[in-house]
């Protein structure tokens, strides 16, 4: 037997996750395939780049509890933490709070980010994460973050305008 209140809560949770995924899909549409230089920033809520996907993140950030703490870029980072087994799916809420900060520090320690574990997603952290991007320029604009936990992957889409 099912409880109608439980069903409503479950549907609400699914809607929230669908909304986060939609926002993230739009954000991940921010990985560029144009020939113009990257000009977006975390502050614009997108990631941008040109040509090969794995060099897109080096000039982005910082993202932290004080910088773009409630943003699509934070949702992107939370999905990376999920793909690497450091956040649960229910922790993806587009808010860089204490749970995301702690998971970020764990990620930075685990993957030996230059500069140490400060809980801030800056260039060093994003460069380290970018090592796990795959895809090719012109390949249906699909980029994949290959997580290191339980074969988790995140599929992202670049828009033709470079976001």
Structure description:
It is a single chain. The protein has 163 residues and is mainly α. It has 4 helices and 3 strands, in the order ααααβββ. The chain has helices spanning 4-28, 72-83, 98-110, 123-130, and strands spanning 133-134, 142-146, 153-157. Strands 1-2-3 form a 3-stranded antiparallel sheet. α1 packs across α2 (72-83). The radius of gyration is 16 Å and the shape is globular. Residues 1-12 and 14-43 have low confidence and may be disordered.
Contiguous low-pLDDT stretches (5 residues minimum) are: 1-12, 14-43
Report mean pLDDT, rounded to a whole number.
74
Q: From N to C, what is the helix and strand string?
A: HHHHEEE
Structural class: mainly alpha
Q: What's the N-to-C terminus distance?
A: 46 Å
Q: Count every beta strand, where a strand is a DSSP E run of 2 or more residues.
A: 3
Bin the helical content: 25-40%
Roughly what fraction of the amino acids lie in strands? 5-15%
Radius of gyration: 16 Å
Strand arrangement across the biggest beta sheet: 1-2-3
Largest sheet: 3 strands, antiparallel
What key phrases describe this protein's structure?
single chain, 163 residues, mainly alpha, three-stranded antiparallel beta sheet, 36% helix, globular, disordered N terminus
In short:
The protein is 36% helix and 7% strand. The protein has 163 residues and is mainly α. The longest helix is centred in the N-terminal third of the chain and has 25 residues, at 4-28.
Secondary-structure blueprint:
Elements: H1 4-28, H2 72-83, H3 98-110, H4 123-130, E1 133-134, E2 142-146, E3 153-157
Antiparallel strand pairs: 1-2, 2-3
Helix pairs in contact: 1-2
């Amino acid at each position: 037997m099912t409880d109608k209140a439980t069903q409503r809560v479950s549907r609400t949770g699914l809607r929230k996750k669908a909304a986060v995924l939609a926002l993230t899909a739009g954000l991940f549409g921010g990985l560029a395939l144009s020939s113009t230089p990257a000009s977006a920033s975390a502050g614009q809520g997108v990631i941008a780049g040109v040509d090969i996907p794995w060099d897109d993140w080096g000039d982005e950030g910082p993202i932290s509890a004080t910088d773009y703490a409630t943003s699509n870029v934070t949702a992107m980072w939370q999905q990376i933490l999920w793909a690497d087994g450091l956040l649960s799916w229910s922790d993806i809420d587009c808010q860089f709070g204490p749970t995301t900060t702690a998971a970020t520090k764990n990620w930075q320690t685990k993957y030996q980010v230059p500069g140490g574990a400060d809980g801030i997603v800056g260039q060093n952290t994003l460069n380290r994460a970018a090592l796990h991007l795959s895809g090719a320029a012109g390949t249906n604009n699909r980029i994949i973050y290959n997580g290191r936990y339980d074969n988790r992957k995140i599929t992202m889409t670049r828009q033709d305008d470079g976001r």
